[in-house]
Design brief:
Layout: H1 2-16, E1 24-27, H2 28-38, E2 47-52, E3 59-62, H3 64-80, E4 85-94, E5 99-106, H4 140-150, E6 154-160, E7 164-172
Parallel strand pairs: 2-4
Antiparallel strand pairs: 1-3, 4-5, 5-7, 6-7
């Protein structure tokens, strides 16, 4: 319920333009260690979270709170839509683009090709039937896209039905 309320509040602030970017230096190796600690819980399904990033990731200037919401939404979705297997959270420095890329890859249900263009739209879900297995109202990925754009980044998704999805967040350094 709290996640739902926060999502609606974020959406309202996005749509009214009442949301600003609070830039600060983010030491990525330390930040990712903190994120990993938030997910050191026992899951109720046979699923492992695997984290990988080089120790020499750069410091970025960005909004830490918005970055956290972006990554939490992506990781939480991966957990929700993956019944067994693994979720890989990784980060890498892209010197050629002066950017950092974060991947959240899962071995979950995947997204049908025809649904890929709509996954970031608000209130849109791949399965909107009344018999769907997974809950939610379709705000998480919309907020991910809006916050990513506010931070000057991009978000992309690759997916194969019944094999999983990979969301790639790219943020400028």
């Amino acid at each position: 319920m709290l996640h739902l309320v926060n999502g609606i509040l974020d959406l309202t602030r996005i749509e009214t333009g009442d949301l600003s970017v609070q830039k600060e230096a983010i030491l990525l190796p330390e930040y990712l260690r903190e994120m990993k600690l938030n997910y050191e819980v026992i899951l109720d399904k046979p699923l492992s979270l695997q984290w990988s990033s080089p120790p020499d990731l750069p410091t970025i200037i960005s909004d830490k709170a918005k970055l956290t919401i972006i990554l939490q939404n992506l990781i939480n979705n991966a957990i929700k839509f993956t019944d067994k297997g693994a979720i890989q959270i990784s980060a890498r420095w892209r010197a050629d683009r002066k950017a950092v890329e974060f991947d959240v890859a899962d071995t979950g249900v995947g997204i049908p090709r025809e649904a890929l263009p709509i996954v970031f739209e608000k209130f849109r879900q791949v399965d909107s039937s009344i018999t769907r297995v997974h809950g939610g109202i379709g705000l998480g990925l919309h907020i991910v896209k809006a916050f990513t754009e506010m931070l000057g980044g991009t978000i992309a998704v690759k997916s194969e039905l019944n094999k999983g999805s990979t969301f790639t967040l790219t943020l400028p350094v």
